[in-house]
Design a protein that fits this description.
This protein is mainly alpha-helical. Helices cover 70% and strands 4% of the residues.
């Protein structure tokens, strides 16, 4: 039995359960290992499974509603953007259809354990379903010409930085959620690997556009001041009306789209609080375990990103960025994607929230600047996605077999460019090797600089809490 078969033998039964049951089992087991009573451990696991199911259902409703309206927009205008944006769910299915995904999962489980043992991280990554984002990078790298060894090295390189990033972000999550440092929630999600680029743009904002901060506003406080008209309900309705008018829908269809968007945004906030409740038993268990067995060492748990979904700024920014992304897609040179399944930019807004710490104007402006990176990455990976989908039998039946498919706002767009460059370099072309080496060096250097900036921020948090 080779290593690929071994990984599939170990993990396939678990992965086949799907993300919510899988996370129920993992959270319950981890809680039991740190001394939480079985009933409390199981309660936390069930709450997490319910939260994940709720988030997935709401995203599905929202993207389906908007995809239909924007498809009508394309048909009525005759716009020729030839790559179909199918959203994240089909891409996850495609990636999990590869036997290499479970191999990459096994590799990263080992890497995480080694980093914990060597005290290079305090985060135990339990969000194993979302390994598909990192596996996608490895698979694309091989599609572009690399062998398994090279792809594995690239996956480990990015994976280690993801885990380090989870530690760097932890104090900011505490601040955004207003939870004590003992709360173990953090994330290793690929969403947040855009943080270094956003941090760079945020620093430029500090130097050139700092005066705009006086016009910024707190989305939550605004909601309280102006009531319903600044609420998540209303923001969703505004966006629904805009997209409905753009796609020339009738009044009945516009109302349905507006009300769907409004209720989805309100539910996002509500479900976000479920993640906090789900990890409360684990939080206390880890605190007790660390004090008794690890001499007070802090342990964090890497969850999926939606535990931060209750912040109003993320959804306000996502709604404003949706029409901006649509306009950019229509005029951006080199783009072949029209935003459909990825119109609600969940691959972009969580990182914007963390780096700017909820400054809404910065989130919108920086988001508008970075969205072309997502569009170009989605265009670049279309051939790989289409080919792989057909190979594993996951190509959407509703789409013409001659069409290309991809995703508009897939997490980790820069990592997709790295996969392409490393894959091309593996063919031995001298120019490709140079480009790949320069890209990897720049990627690492900007992450090191970002880590330095985050450590400075975290020292400020520590001094403020004394």
């Amino acid at each position: 039995m080779d290593i690929i078969e071994l990984a599939n033998t170990i993990f396939t039964p678990l992965i086949n359960l799907g993300a919510p049951p899988l996370m129920l089992i993992i959270l319950t087991i981890v809680s039991l290992l740190v001394g939480v009573k079985f009933t409390k451990a199981l309660e936390g696991g069930i709450k997490l499974a319910i939260a994940l199911t709720g988030i997935g259902a709401i995203i599905g409703i929202l993207t389906t509603a908007f995809s239909g309206a924007l498809t009508q927009f394309v048909q009525s205008t005759g716009i020729e953007l030839t790559i179909t944006d199918v959203g994240w769910a089909p891409l996850a299915t495609i990636t999990w259809g590869s036997p290499y995904t479970l191999y990459f999962l096994m590799v990263m489980v080992i890497v995480n354990i080694l980093m914990l043992a060597l005290k290079k991280t305090n985060t135990l990554d339990v969000d194993i379903f979302d390994i598909w984002h990192l596996s996608f990078v490895g698979l694309m790298c091989m599609f572009c010409g690399a062998n398994l060894v090279t792809a594995t090295i690239l996956v480990i390189f990015i994976g280690v930085l993801k885990i380090i990033n989870s530690d760097l972000m932890k104090p900011t999550f505490n601040d955004l959620l207003n939870v004590p440092a003992s709360n173990p929630m953090t994330t290793t999600h690929m969403n947040y690997m855009m943080n270094p680029v956003i941090m760079l743009l945020n620093k430029i904002f500090d130097k050139l556009f700092f005066w705009l901060d006086k016009y910024d506003f707190d989305a939550a406080k605004l909601n309280k001041k102006i009531g319903f008209w600044g609420s998540k309900f209303a923001i969703g309705i505004y966006l629904g009306i805009f997209v409905g008018l753009l796609s020339k829908q009738n009044p009945k269809e516009i109302c349905a789209l507006a009300f769907t968007a409004g209720v989805c945004l309100e539910l996002f906030s509500m479900i976000g609080t479920w993640f906090i409740a789900a990890v409360e038993p684990l939080s206390q268990g880890i605190t007790d375990f660390a004090n008794k067995r690890l001499k007070g060492r802090t342990l964090n748990i890497g969850l999926d990103w939606p535990f931060i979904a209750g912040r109003a700024e993320m959804w306000a920014a996502a709604n404003i960025l949706a029409p901006i992304m649509l306009i950019e897609a229509l005029v951006l040179p080199g783009n072949g994607l029209l935003p459909l399944g990825g119109i609600i930019a969940m691959g972009a807004t969580p990182a914007l929230l963390v780096v700017t710490r909820g400054k809404l104007l910065r989130m919108i402006i920086i988001g508008a600047i970075e969205l072309p990176i997502f569009l170009w990455a989605g265009t670049l990976m279309a051939s790989f996605v289409t080919s792989t989908a057909k190979l594993v039998g996951a190509f959407p039946a509703s789409i013409s077999s001659n069409a290309l498919i991809s995703q508009t706002t897939m997490e980790g767009p820069i990592e997709k460019f790295l996969a392409y460059l490393v894959g091309q370099a593996s063919t031995g072309a001298g120019q490709a090797i140079l480009y790949a080496a320069l890209a990897l060096a720049a990627y690492l250097l900007i992450f090191i600089w970002y880590a330095f900036e985050m450590k400075k921020r975290n020292k400020e948090y520590q001094s403020n809490n004394k």
